[in-house]
Amino acid sequence: MKRLLASTVAALLLASACGADDGGGQTPTTASATTSATTGDTTGGEQPITTSGTATGATAGAGGPVLVTVGLRTFASCDAILSYYIENALELVGPYGLDGGPSIYRGDEMVEEAMAAAESDAAVATTSAASSQSAPSFTGTNVQVAGVDEADLVKTDGFYIYSLLDNRRRLRIVEVNDGAMNLLSTLDVGFEPREMLLYEDTLLLVSTEYRVGAVTRIAQVDISDRGSPEVVADLSMDGVYKGSRLSGGVARVVINSGPVGIEWEHPRGNGLRAEQEAIEANRELVRRSTLGNWLPAYVRADLDGGAPEWGQLVECSNVLAPGVFSGLNTLSIVMFDLSEGIGDWTSAGVVAEGDTIYATPETVYVATSRWVDWRALSDDDVRSESRGYTTLIHKFDTSTAGRPVYEASGEVEGFLLNQFSMDEYDGDLRVAATSGPSWWWTEDSESHVTVLRPQGDLLEEVGSVWGLGEGERIFSVRFMGPDAYVVTFRQVDPLYALDLSDPANPEVLGELKIPGFSSYLHPVADDLILGVGQDASLEGRVEGLQVSLFDVSDPTDPIRVAQLLLPEDYDPYMYSWSPVQEDHRAFLYFQDLAYVPYQAHWYEDDQGFSILDVGVAAVEVRSGDLVLEALLRPLEDGPVGEDDRSWNRAWRSVPERVLVIDGRLYSVTSSGIGVHDTTTWERGVFLEYPER
Predict the structure, then answer these.
(1) Model confidence over 435-460: pLDDT tens digits?
(2) How many Cα atoms are found within 13 Å in the side-chain-facing hemisphere of 104?
(3) Are 603 and 573 within 8 A, CB to CB?
(4) Using CA of residue 303, residue 304, residue 305, residue 309, what is the dihedral sign?
(5) For the chain, which has fewer Cβ within 10 Å, the N-terminal or C-terminal residue?
(6) How far apart, in whole angstroms, are the C-alpha atoms of residue 163 and residue 144?
(7) Which pLDDT tens digit goes with each residue over 637-647?
(8) Kind plus residue range of the DSSP H or E element containing 563
(9) What is the pTM of this model?
């Protein structure tokens, strides 16, 4: 395995030492009304913001992008940051700007791969601890790391359910009491929130809008009066929202932003002359660009109708770049102390492409990828480019609200599936990756698990194990203390059991090959793991939703001890699916019961119409077996046909989140909330939202 950081650190560390930021020479970067503003003007002479950074060992690459240093380093000044952007952009700009021109269609195979990826974009998570409140008892969001909350579509404090599952993503606040429900309020915040965080009497509603390019928008909602919630702050930032975490009352929001404000030239007419003229014009636009064209801006609305405040989201002293050119986007970590609201924040930015984050209560890891215009490559070039491809991982200390502090960087060969490909244990970071991209099958692809350990400002590889799923790719990962379980798939589903107790010598102890795959793995006992995914034929054709139970008491010989196809009357011609396959937050495991939302539909030949079934499967893990306790349908006792008046209503009532509050299961859908008693499975009254 190539280890760029380890092999070059000795030569470059000395050269870059003068530019290293030890975290002690900068004051916290807090946005305020005095933050210097930058605009999208490509002609003006922008005044740089004063910073306390020192010079890095920046060098111009010979005929390629500029390489800065090993790991991440700050820049000497705003001018140095601007120079970095300009020099790299000049190498990449084309006749249509920086977007690579028209997309290249890659044929039916690409479409099939995208569909397969959609089937398997699964998450692996641990269940969050119940709230510390003594009453009522309730379940929270199913999160990856205990103590680190994740934004979601639905939240609860045990007394109220807060939901963004609405046909227009409005906020619904529902009071719950012993199965009775009362819709207290509906709030339209002026945009469609994607997810939210809950902290005491505050909700943060977050989304990406596309109005002048991609914009991340956050609304802070005061819910101290649940019957009359109020937006008390409205903040917009350049870029696409990538996720957020909440720990200790501090929200950490990650945004990926691209260049803005440059009106690119396009070829005027046909022929090489028109192409070259457009390229030269675009290069001149790059040369005349200002920092406001590259670093993200923020706009804070004045809710009293006054002029908004705006400025640069990340100060120059807190902008860093990786040692390997990773694109012209800026990945920003923005921290809000929610006890103070979103009026002030601290931030750090990385000049890199990337959208994978993993967080513990004290740290945030950001995975960035070397820039490649995959759209412009042929099939053979994709295979060639994938060989030796590496993902860089950067570690930030976010233990205080002062600011994110950069600590170390490392790399692994290959591509990560998602946030659950990373896990911190005993100070080490374990990473699961596949040598081929998730959207591309290659016969020579293989997966591996690598252990990285902080050594100064490096995350240095101390051990790795390869050879997982040759010709396949990772579909799910579960790290459990010193052990790891990895599912790969193409035609059959190998479940690999790994021992990572010796980080320098990780090893595969055993594997199980069965048809189908598990998109989500969840520990239900010391030696039992529950999987949610799809059954499949021996040829790899998916055949329906399944829940599997694996016994890993002997890691050299993991076995599947139970399999349950859903719904109960599973038919080979039925299509069944669960949102758990794409989003771990849709899953709930509570008191030996797995709650799996599902939908299924099939065609009745004798009746001439389709049948739809939606609900939540309550599956008990009992004596090493899986027992279907009930199919909890929020509206009907059974499936409905398309000739039934309930057909459209059922389509709008597919459960996407489930909560247990004081012995009752609440199925949250986009049209309302269903409730069942978890002792008798009796269905209560469905709370249906009004149309307006």
Answers:
(1) 866 555 556 678 999 999 999 888 99
(2) 9
(3) yes
(4) negative
(5) C
(6) 21
(7) 778 877 677 78
(8) strand 559-565
(9) 0.82
